[in-house]
Automatic annotation (TrEMBL):
It comes from the Bacteria. GO terms for molecular function: hexosyltransferase activity. Keywords: Transferase. This is Glycosyltransferase involved in cell wall bisynthesis. Coiled coil: none annotated. InterPro entries: Glyco_trans_2-like (IPR001173), Nucleotide-diphossugar_trans (IPR029044). It holds the Pfam family Glycos_transf_2. Residues 8-165 form the Glycosyltransferase 2-like domain.
Length: 242
């Protein structure tokens, strides 16, 4: 590449000794090398910190301390990130080896882009590949953009702000809706970029209800549809408990 912009990558972790090393390796072994890697640990009590220390020579900055939750940790990292592009990969997930290289190539070709995202492989039980997905033009109305594949221009974060910590699960979705409302340009990279293990709070009822509220807040769904979906969740919860 003629130019190699700095790319910041953020991993937030808490008690993930079983999966963290694969995440760290996937960043440290990228074919693209101009990477600033930031790891924020929420004060883990298992072997997580020892694993981070093992890769400390490839990590620009890491810290282990209690925080207010995942989005507080993301915001802490975003405040110190210096890269033109910023990617976030959680401690259960991992990048394909050429993910950053693919994104940077697209970034250099498409100077007007603000958010770059691509194909995501879901990983099911027994760490077996499940399906590969990638939303195009309707991703913000039909479902969440594949956030582990996202690389966002630092200037966009500087312009519209970081994650809204009132949300426990769906602040990434709210950020993307906020970006869309601000006129951000989304660029789809037609490459497999990341792998995502199913499970966690984003797959829970909390995650669904938060995403539903965000869709209503940004006018993606009508008030009537919002009420119907909330009623459906309440009825389902009642039936499951009886």
């Amino acid at each position: 590449m003629l130019t190699e912009p700095l790319v910041s990558i953020i991993t937030v972790v808490y008690n993930s000794e079983k999966t963290l090393e694969q995440t760290l390796q996937s960043v440290c072994e990228q074919t693209y090398k101009n990477i600033e890697y930031i790891v924020i640990d929420g004060g883990s009590s298992d072997g997580t910190v020892d694993i981070i220390k093992k890769y400390s020579s490839d990590i620009a900055y890491w810290i282990s301390e209690k925080d207010g939750g995942i989005y507080y940790a993301f915001n802490k990292a975003l405040a110190m990130a210096k890269g033109e592009l910023i990617g976030i990969i959680n401690s259960d997930d991992w990048y394909e080896k050429n993910a950053v290289e693919c994104v940077v190539k697209e970034y250099l070709l498409c100077k007007g882009g603000d958010v770059f995202h691509g194909l995501l492989r879901f990983i099911g039980e027994g760490d077996k590949p499940d399906s590969v997905v990638g939303h195009y033009h309707t991703f913000l109305s039909n479902g969440m953009i594949e956030h582990p594949t996202c690389f966002v221009k630092k200037s966009l974060y500087d312009s519209i702000g970081h994650f809204d910590t009132m949300y426990r699960s769906a602040a990434d979705y709210e950020f993307m809706q906020r970006a869309r409302k601000a006129g951000a340009r989304f660029v789809f990279v037609t490459q497999l970029l990341a792998n995502f293990r199913r499970g966690g709070i984003s797959d829970s009822e909390v995650g669904f209800l938060e995403e539903l509220a965000i869709k209503r807040r940004y006018g993606v769904i009508s008030k009537l549809k919002y009420i119907k979906w909330k009623l459906f969740v309440k009825v389902r919860k009642y039936l499951q408990s009886n």
